[in-house]
Design a protein that fits this description.
Blueprint lengths: L1 H34 L1 H10 L1 E6 L2 E7 L2 E3 L5 H10 L11 E5 L5 E6 L14 H8 L2 E2 L2 H4 L5 H19 L11 E2 L6 E2 L6 E2 L6 E4 L1 E2 L3 E6 L7 E2 L2 E4 L6 H15 L1 E6 L11 E2 L2
Parallel strand pairs: 1-5
Antiparallel strand pairs: 1-2, 2-3, 2-6, 4-5, 7-8, 8-9, 10-14, 11-12, 12-15, 13-16
Helix pairs in contact: 1-2
Length: 274
């Protein structure tokens, strides 16, 4: 019995170390791509690209699920050439992750005005026909994506939005320039380095033990409800933030009570009532 337990423990330790080793290796590789422009350009040659249009990801419908197609650099260059676009537009792509085999993943928005090319944004309808997909509101499609695609696309959308909104230096007023990976922007004039910012958010599930309180805003897709959530003000404690969200949520949102057993807390996304 002791021998069996010892073997089981060693096997468990082996897989734990292997998992940790894979995570560390991926983290180091991503750090290298973010800091070394030449390494990131090399990774683009064998990497995969996810496409967006005005912050909406390109998705393809498969039965009741959405899939996010990937495109190689060569396929992307052919696509841009077909629509009369400069391949320099690829410089607007951002690094969003990598596989265990170190295949780098990038995201590129073809609908936003390019900062690296004089070409205007591509027409959405023409792109959808060519790519046999549709540029879909990510919030509406989130429930029908697998975990990997949902994580990558939300990361990509946040980074693309940040770059679109921070193209100028707040001190000098001059245009900023992104590095190849898109992990930062630099002002050539003031030498200030800007990094993507993350706003702290509090989400609160109000429950009486058997039911929970869900709310919705008018901007939500039909049938979608969420636990009460909002941004944290500077200097405010989390408890004070949760109290504020409960008060504001009840005043500004439509709401309903839902049976707690119907909720899955595995992912922090709004709950959709069918």
């Amino acid at each position: 019995m002791s021998l069996y337990c010892g073997i089981a423990c060693r096997k468990k330790s082996f897989w734990c170390y292997r998992l940790l080793s894979t995570y560390v290796t991926k983290t180091r590789y991503l750090f290298e791509l973010k800091e070394d422009d030449d390494a990131c350009k090399t990774a683009q040659q064998t990497g995969a690209f996810y496409l967006f249009h005005s912050l909406a990801p390109l998705l393809q419908k498969s039965e009741q699920r959405y899939q996010a197609p990937q495109y190689s650099l060569l396929e992307l260059e052919r696509l841009l050439a077909k629509f009369g676009q400069d391949t320099q537009r690829i410089e607007d792509s951002v690094l969003i992750g990598c596989s265990k085999q170190h295949e780098a993943w990038f995201a590129l928005d073809l609908g936003l005005n390019s900062s690296s090319s004089l070409n205007a944004s591509l027409q959405k309808a023409e792109m959808e026909i060519e790519l046999k997909g549709s540029f879909t509101d990510l919030r509406k499609a989130l429930f029908q994506l697998n975990t990997k695609d949902a994580s990558l696309l939300t990361t990509a959308q946040a980074l693309l939005r940040w770059h679109d909104a921070h193209q100028f230096c707040s001190r000098s007023g001059q245009p900023t320039k992104k590095n190849v990976a898109g992990s930062k922007r630099v002002c050539p004039s003031s030498k200030i380095i800007y990094y993507p910012q993350m706003a702290p958010v509090v989400i609160t599930l109000v429950s009486d033990g058997t039911r929970c309180l869900l709310a919705r805003q008018s901007s939500f897709p039909k049938g979608m409800y969420s636990a009460l959530a909002g941004f944290c003000d500077i200097g405010k404690r989390f408890r004070a933030c949760t109290d504020a969200q409960r008060t504001q949520g009840l005043n500004n949102c439509r709401f309903l009570f839902c049976c707690c057993c119907a909720l899955s807390l595995k992912h922090t996304v709004p709950y959709q009532v069918k």
